[in-house]
Amino acid sequence: MKVTARAHTNIALVKYWGKKDQQLIIPQTDSLSLTLDKFYTDTTVEFQPELKHDQLVVDGQVFAPKQMKKVTRVLDRVRELSNQTLYASVNSTNHVPMAAGLASSASAFAALALSASRSAGLTLSGRDLSRLARRGSGSATRSVFGGLVEWHAGHDDQSSYAEPIMENVGFDIEMLAILIDTKQKKISSRGGMQSSVETSPFYPAWREVVAHDMVAMKQAIQNHDIDQIGHLAEENAMRMHALTLSADPDYTYFDGGTIQAMNLIKGLRNQGVNCYYTMDAGPNVKVIYNQRDRERIINALAPSFGVNNLVVAQPGPGAHLL
Ligand code: DP6
User: Fold this and answer.
1) Ligand 1 atom at minimum distance from 105 CA
2) Measured from the CB, is residue 73 less than 6 Å from ligand 1?
C-alpha cells in the first residue's frame, strides 16, 4: 500500500541535548516543544516485493544505501512490528531549509514513522508512533503531535515517548524564524550533543536546569503567559549553548548574524516589546512573542536580515495522512 503523510517541525522551548542510549535514542532529560505550521515534510512510502533494498529520494535527490542508515533503522523497526521482510521506497519532500537548525529531521522522521507504519498495515497509537519516530531522530518524537508537546525521557524503548500538553494552543504565541544561513550545518546535533555529554563539566548542571525548566514551563503554559514562556525558553537555550562552548574541543552553532539578531531582540525588549530568542544546532534564530507585536518585530529585523528571510509561524498540527 502506498501511503503519504505530512509532519511539521517543532522548536524546543526546553531543549533535548544528550542521549543515554544512542541506539534507541533515549535522551538524558525530558524536553518540551511547539510544533509549527510553516515548516513540514511530506513523505510517501511503499513496501514492494520487487525491491532488493530500501530506496530513499529526498527533494528529488537519490540517496545511497549507506547514506540512509537512520531511515533504514526506522524501516527495520516497522518490518519487525509488522512481521514482514519487504523493502520500501521512500520519497520525501521538505518544506524546510534542510539541516539549518530548523529541525528538518523532526518533521522528516515523524512523517516517515506515520507513512511507513500505515503502509505496512499497522495502525499505531500516537504514543507508539512517537516511539517509532524516536528511532530516527530524537526531536521527531515530539513532531508526532501538534501544539505544545512533552517528550518523557524514560529509561527504555517503552518509557521514552511524547505526549501532547496542549494540542490546540488557545493563546497568541507566535514564532518568527530569522533565516541567517540555510546551508548544511558543520557539526551535527548528534555529534555535538554527544560531545557535550562526554566532555562538558557543566553537563550535570544541565540536567538540573531541565528538571526545573520543565516544571516552570508547564506552569507558564497553563497560565498562557507568553512572556514567561519566552523568558524561560531563552534562558534554557542559552544554557544549552553553554554546553557547546564548554565542550572539548569547544564549538558553537552561532555565527555573526546570530549575535546580531540576539542584540536586536534585546534592544526591542529594552523598548518594551516582549520578545525572546531561541537557537538550535545552527545559526538561525527563532523569536518568541505575542502575535500583536509581530509588526514591530518585523520592522526592527527587516533592515538587517531582509523581509524575505523572516518567516512567521504559528502553532501547527500533528502528523497526519494526506
Ligand atoms: C537542538 O533530534 O536532531 O534541536 O536525536 O541525534 O537526531 P538526534 O538529534 P536531533 O537534536 C535536536 C536538538 C535540538 C533541541 C531539540 O530539538 O530539543
Assistant:
1) 3
2) no
